[in-house]
Amino acid sequence: MKILHISDVHFGPPYLPNVGEALLRTAPSIDPDVVVVSGDLTQRAKPQQFQQAAEFIKQLPDVPRIVIPGNHDVPLYRIMERLTDPHRYYRQYISNELNTVLQTPDALFVGLDSTAPRSAISNGRIHPSQLDFCRDAFGSVPDGLAKIVVAHHHFAPAPDYLHDQTMPKAKRAINLFVKLGVELILGGHLHRAFIGNTLDFYPGAGRAHGIVIVQCGTTTSRRGRGREKEKNSFNEIDVTEQTIIVTHHIFDDQTGQFAPLSRHEFARGGRRLENASPRSSHNPRATKSIESNPLPQTLRSTRV
């Protein structure tokens, strides 16, 4: 299974049309099986911005999609609307479902609305009822399907100098995800990419292998932060029977195209690569030989 993971497109003043056009040119070559859009479709939750975002998403490859709202998809300054009907235009133009489930032949995705428009406009929340939603969704997943959570806000801070505050009670959610067998968490919000493992932040949860965390930068806006200041990025994720391979793509201003910057490889279920040969250039979804080993999932990270 191949996932195209984009985030924080921010239709409105920050949106960069040339970068959006480059993404639309690149997306078919990724040949994804699933498209994930992890929130912040708009800058100020205005009807025209949602309409533009919806049209943009329709131009992405015609495959199953999972889209969730971000904090910018609820009104900030229209206070009465934020308190009484915060997702009005998201529901009208994008989806009536805020917490959603997508099952494909290879995975079950659970998308969680981490926005908290009445209490935490920026940092987000995952409420107990949403954890119950996860229990129900992942409770009857057929063997072999990857379990993937998508939420806009981050469950762990990026390991850099900006020191972002994590969602309150994130550890509670991580502990449940570990029990449910979640293998991958996809998110945005930070406006810079970060690819790691829950064991880097929550050493008590899932000591055998942890959960792979993949945060996406801002794919099409001028609002990049940290190492991706004034940069744009997306993630290409290969999930095979034995590995999770994340290729981080970044926009090159000189060429006007997205290009792969780094590749990060993890074994599924705590297994480790042994004597693996390079992936075939003729079959980009070829797997490597892996054997069981109860060690942390992170295997290697390389520049490309």
Structure report:
With 304 residues, the protein is α/β, with parallel strands linked by helices. It has a single domain (2-303), classed as Metallo-dependent phosphatases (Purple Acid Phosphatase, chain A, domain 2, 4-Layer Sandwich). 20% of the residues lie in helices and 26% in strands. The strands form 3 sheets. A 7-stranded mixed sheet has the order 3-2-1-10-11-12-15. Helix 5 packs parallel to helix 6. It is globular, with a radius of gyration of 18 Å. Residues 270-300 have low confidence and may be disordered.
Which short descriptors sum up this protein?
globular, 304 residues, alpha/beta, 6-stranded mixed beta sheet, 15 strands, Purple Acid Phosphatase, chain A, domain 2, 20% helix
